[in-house]
Amino acid sequence: MKAADSAKGDAGSGGPGAARPGAANALAGEPSAYLRQHADNPVHWRPFGDEAFGFAAQRDVPVFLSIGYAACHWCHVMAHESFEDQATADFLNANFVAIKVDREERPDVDAVYMAATQAISGEGGWPMSVFLMPDGRAFHAGTYFPPRPMPGRPSFRQVLEAVREAWVERRGGVEQNAETLARGMAETQLAAVVQLTGLPDPVDAGLLSEAVRVLARSEDQNHGGFGTAPKFPPSPILEFLIRHAAAVSETADVAKDMAGRTLAAMARSALFDQLDGGFARYSVTRDWSVPHFEKMLYDNAQLLRAYVHWVRLGGDAVYTAGEAADVASRTADWLIASLGLAVHTAGSDEGPGQGEGRGLEAGQVEAFASSLDADTVVDGRHLEGASYLWTPEELLHVLGPDDGPAVARLMNVRAEGTVTPAASPLHPGRRSDDAGQLLWDRARPRLLAARSARPQPARDDKVVAGWNGLALAALAEAGAVLDRPGLVAAAERTAAYLERVHWQPPRAGDQGTEPGTLVRVSHGGRAKGIGGLLEDYAFCADGLLALYGVTGRDRWYRLAEDILQAACQRFAADGTLVDTTGESSQVFNAQGQRAGLEPFDTATPSGAAAFAGALLGHAALSGSSDHRVMAANILSLLPALATRAPRAAGWLLATAQAALAGPVEAAVVGPAGSARAELHHALMMSASPGLVVAVASDAGVPAADAAPPAVPLLEGRTAAPDGSPQVYLCRGMVCERPVASVAELLERLAAMAG
Q1: What is the pTM of this model?
Q2: Intra-chain end-to-end CA distance of the chain, in Å
Q3: Interior CA angle at 131 toward 130 and 135, to 5°?
Q4: Is pLDDT of 297 > 90?
């Protein structure tokens, strides 16, 4: 066709669209592992920024924007099929400026162009392929494009040729499409505006119960979770269901049953690594039997916390607290050993190489890497899940003629594989009986040793501030509930790393004191790139408040307070809430020059919902009416979402459940020792929704002239008349009479839940 013929003449010919001399792939020096994966492509990739877009404007060519992440299987597939192909690269270089984006480093870029992709194509995912004007506005988009046409999907080369033809022959239409889409994006952004002043209506308990009923209608009761395939772990929804089950309502039992079925199904499936612990990103089947094998920090941090909270709730007959504690403990161990980074030993910008420095112990970890790849490179080929798959013959070889076939039956490994024609992941699919458990306890160490000798998936060693905030909250609470102080210590070192590397404290400037800045990403102990987004500030603040509740260290409370204050100044300065602060003019143009707010959860809680939760927790400790009002105003989003889209509003629902409970505030005072530790431990084991805990310093009874405590909830709270420790239980800083025994404390907590 004409576009193809014209393209042949322009590729490398010096025509209007030809690449300028000296243009080359510019990704080799980038710290992102994902960008460096593409540094040897013949495509002349550039990182996202003004230089790349300016180059496109200078050449008068469109931008081809490719977004993915290091652990993404289909990103590797498209790279091998298209970006490593010289002919395809020549056409791209001649007619486009090609930009690569790591979605985990630039979620602001990913979010706006994902919305554009969904609006244009009706689908979303990674790799994301978007065509832009040189000012950043999108006009055409899709996801994965194959090297040859497939039913319902053109080849990548066909897409490139069609876009180039439209750019050359119908520029006015391209411009109109871009402008129409940008205006539509602006209208969509305005749909989620939150005014942070005024007094909204209180949380409606009936609305939360109705959300549970709506969720129940989409639950897969046979296999756990919600909907059909593909099936993702519903982490924010699990937090809501567990909190709802801990309160008194007509739907509490329904919520508990749903949470228990999902937690049990995931833990007994191939989604959970039965050998080494940790959860995969999602399952391509509704019964969780065939995972998409990448393992993400954000998934495992959220799920660790959910399983720990199920332990606190007490479990049920379908899924016991003991089973959940085992899964939580193994997930924490996997986080430490497989994603833990001893970053102080890395002197280069890149830090430890991918796959290096694994197998750390809790005492060595300072921060957490982002992910393990879905693929394993075997003999130069990317093979999805290769590290995790087994054949009956391999089990027989490792375990012998008695245990090998028995484990194959136990783990549903059959002659016909579920991932390849012969190989499957380990998928028990049910609770093991005593004999099965004995068999598995005997076989597991041998299989793990055999698997460890295989090639392993690459690790993306970048440290993302917000995801490390999720991890430190989960590890702190896991350490307290599972009685594993090493996990608490690892959480503290992670918090110290965030403070040292990612946090830039407020400083005096020409216009007064400038707010502190939380940098989103670091590599090898050095922070680089954009400032954090709302979610980074919110996840870190929430994690630090959780860590304070476990440790009682004022340092973490003060840091959380500083981060929240900076977030208020950055993301709510004009009385409305936004997710970003204009890190890119191109992103701003793409969304119709309107700042946006995403109210829905994605793989992680929405920044707005997490911010509301952190504000509510801080208000409970500090008495800040401003923060409580801000949280309540964010929760005013709930009536429009709770029954229409509860599966995408889990963290907002969980925060509303905490607000409905008060949340309960607990001030632990009196001298340190076993008696105070028992009271504190009872609070850590409480499932009260959103419970916040303040712990007095170890100094015991303060002197009359002592400075007020760092945490206002502790102010005026004293030890018992005989000097023994006690706990004040409060709501809105209004406290009941203090209690001095664990039995009385539990009785009062139960009464307050009613």
Answers
A1: 0.90
A2: 72
A3: 115
A4: yes
What would the two tokens of residue 145 be?
Answer: 């494009």
Confidence bin at 344 (pLDDT 50/70/90) = low
Q: Quick count: other Cβ atoms within 10 Å of Cβ 382? A: 18
Give the Cα separation of 53 and 140 in Å (integer): 17
Beta bridge partners of 384: 375
Structure tokens at 315: 């479990």
- Site of tokens 């590890």: 475
Q: Which residues pair with 729 in a beta bridge?
A: 666
d(CA 545, CA 429): 37
In 379-511 the beta strands, taken as DSSP E runs, fall at: 381-384, 459-460, 463-464, 503-504, 507-509
Task: Locate 571 and state its tokens.
Answer: 């993301």
Residue with tokens 């099965």: 436
Q: Is 420 helix (H, G, I), strand (E, B) or coil?
A: coil
Burial of 398: CB neighbours in 10 Å, binned 0-12, 13-18, 19+: middle
Q: Alpha-carbon distance 334 to 332, whole Å?
A: 5
**Which helix (DSSP H) or strand (DSSP E) does residue 448 occupy?**
helix 434-452
657, 243 contact by CB (below 8 A): yes
As given in the structure block, the two tokens for residue 116 are 């554009």
In terms of C-beta density within 10 A (0-12 exposed, 13-18 middle, 19 or more buried), how is residue 563 classed? buried
309: nearest Cα among 471, 538, 477: 477
Give the model confidence (pLDDT) of 495-541 as tens digits. Answer: 999 999 999 998 876 666 788 999 999 999 999 888 999 999 999 99
Residues contacting residue 492 through CB under 8 Å, at least 6 positions apart: 472, 476, 547, 551, 553, 556
